[in-house]
Write a structure and sequence with these properties.
Strand content: 15-25%
Protein name: D-TA family PLP-dependent enzyme
CATH superfamily of the largest domain: Alanine racemase
GO molecular function, one term: D-serine ammonia-lyase activity
Helix content: 25-40%
Distance between the termini: 48 Å
GO biological process, one term: D-serine catabolic process
Shape: elongated
Radius of gyration: 22 Å
Organism: Hymenobacter setariae
CATH class of the largest domain: Alpha Beta
Number of domains: 2
Number of strands: 16
Family: Belongs to the DSD1 family.
Length: 367
């Protein structure tokens, strides 16, 4: 029997290429739905796939809320008639007016965004007032990642200040704990609870003041922890395609790899090494060399050199590989890998089955 990833007509695919297995995407979406008590608490991030086809499968799975990081991703979701879209970014500069343009272009979609800064809030409010719009916003909290978000000590006052701006509607709190990614689930859970404790206290303070904040929390690593937290919306993203890094680190989440990179042996530079067409431009390369790709049909190959268009791997003596051999690579980090490709080739029943354009890898679609 063929392995799940093998493509019968691989000779028709030029490499390097991104391939996606829709049946596995559907499996991962169905599995996600079993891991939470209410589909209304799911707000998956589309940064991993950036494609219309994956959005439509997510909607078909009964998920109606989404998170994204760019205006282009938000526009893609609007064009798919996604009911509820959170731009998980503070709109600064032209992004603020672009967001308002999306609200006008896609009135069936409820767009919201993040805020953590008074000047940004006032600017967004002024633009919204000029456009006669009310913009839903979430206050972005810094719970330890130190990348964005307001300090917890200043959050209550900022929440009130934003709510006092007439063209902003403060919906709730955004809590991204991306710094928590321990492989040990018990350690990860404890760190997640520690980071969330002041958020729970802030929520109680806001409720006592008459507010009813919605909380959007976590990513894929802390999804199991937040899924067990009543009422909190969860925002996993990588789950939909999965990858080698998360597969090794978060074994308690049994999602299936659903997207690979196809490449070929293009040279035999020495008696023990191969060169394949999987350079920096074809696979995410921010991780150490040994954590970039694993070849499912050749797991013994070890990367030893990487450049823009080439990856050199050690195969050992008498390896038997030939120029032209096809390799199926499982990326260590799928999200930035997908963004390197204009499209993915869909594979169903081991055969080519159309393409999934990576529409939202572009920074601008129409708005």
């Amino acid at each position: 029997m063929a392995e799940w990833f093998e493509i019968a007509d691989a000779d028709m695919v030029d490499t390097p290429a991104l391939v996606v297995y829709p049946d596995r995407v559907r499996h991962n979406l169905a599995l996600l739905a079993t891991q939470i008590d209410d589909l209304g608490r799911l707000r998956p991030h589309i940064k991993t796939h950036k494609s219309r086809e994956a959005v439509l499968l997510t909607l078909a799975a009964g998920i109606t809320k989404f998170k994204c990081a760019t205006i282009a991703e938000a526009e893609l979701l609007g064009s798919c008639q996604a009911p509820d879209v959170l731009l998980a970014y503070q709109p600064v500069g032209p992004k603020a007016s672009r967001l308002l343009a999306l609200m006008q272009e896609y009135p069936r979609t409820r767009f919201s965004c993040l805020l953590d800064n008074a000047e940004a809030a006032q600017h967004l409010n002024a633009l919204a007032e000029a456009s006669h719009l009310l913009v839903p916003v979430f206050i972005d909290l810094n719970v330890g990642m130190n990348r964005s978000g307001i300090a917890l000590a200043a959050a209550f006052r900022f929440y009130q200040q934003c709510q006092d701006l007439p063209n902003l509607d403060v919906v709730g709190l955004h809590v991204y704990d991306g710094h928590i990614h321990d492989e040990d689930l018990a350690v990860r859970t404890e760190r997640c609870h520690q980071a969330f404790a002041p958020v729970a206290a802030l929520t109680e303070q806001l409720q006592e003041a008459g507010f009813a904040p919605v909380i959007v929390a976590g990513g894929t690593p802390t999804f199991p922890v937040h899924a067990a937290r009543p009422g909190v919306e969860c925002s996993p993203g990588t789950f939909i395609y999965w990858d080698g890094g998360y597969g090794r680190a978060f074994a308690e989440q049994p999602f299936l790899p659903a997207s690979l990179v196809l490449c070929r042996v293009v040279s035999l530079p020495t008696t023990t090494t191969l060169c394949v067409d999987l350079g920096h431009k074809a696979i995410a390369s921010e991780s150490p060399l040994d954590k970039r790709v694993t070849f499912l049909n050749a797991p013994e190959l070890q990367p030893i050199g990487h450049s823009e268009e080439h990856l050199v791997v050690e195969a050992g003596p008498d390896h038997g590989y030939r120029v032209g051999n096809v390799l199926y690579g499982l990326p260590h980090h799928i999200c930035p890998t997908v963004a390197l490709y204009a499209q993915a080739t869909a594979i169903e029943n081991h055969h080519l089955a159309g393409t999934w354009p990576t529409v939202a890898r572009d920074r601008i679609l129409t708005v």
